[in-house]
Amino acid sequence: MLPIHLYGSDILEKVCDDADLKDKNLSHLIKKMFKTLNKSNGIGLAAPQVGVNKRCFVINTNIIRELPKDEKIREVFLNPLIISFSDKKISSSEGCLSIPLISDVVVDRYEEIKVSYYNQKLEYCEKTLKGKLAVVFQHEFDHLNGVLLTHKLSKGQKEIHKKYIENILLENQITYSFDNFEDILKYLMSLVNDRNYLSYPSCLT
Ligand SMILES: [Zn+2]
What we know:
By secondary structure, the chain is an alpha+beta fold. It contains 4 helices and 7 strands; from the N terminus they run H-E-E-E-E-E-E-E-H-H-H. The chain is 29% helix and 22% strand. Bound molecules: zinc ion. Zinc ion binds next to helix 2.
């Protein structure tokens, strides 16, 4: 399993480079990413989350039992693009493997998207994705552009999550002195990273 970079790690907020499809290490990376995704009980994982600045992510929605068959997929997305999207947006409640302890972040996503990408066999593919699958794709696609759930929080949502983090710190008798949400979240992630004693439930993507 590859170590997952947490909020505060620079690589998570950088725009990724195209994946070199001739790179012989690519299949090894993909294999390791699927392993990491499985062990984390996640449904999506982007290369920057494991410290690789490449436009690549993996999705496995098979673990969501209630999902309709046409939204179940185990797929690699190399150099993905969103070709077109629906007018209609849906409100989605998301978590991120790089921001453990923070869940239920409400984000607006396109309900349906048409995408292109190269798969594991390096074949060019075009697909229309909808529902949960479209949402997961958009979450992972954001990662390739250095965009995190925290960037999409409203002021009000930041306050709510800040209070939640403050409670975790209080419960663990950890003193802190941070005024804004980003700083206190970075501090919390450093505790998860360094001391490894703040256990957290597995999140989503
Ligand atoms: Zn994520």
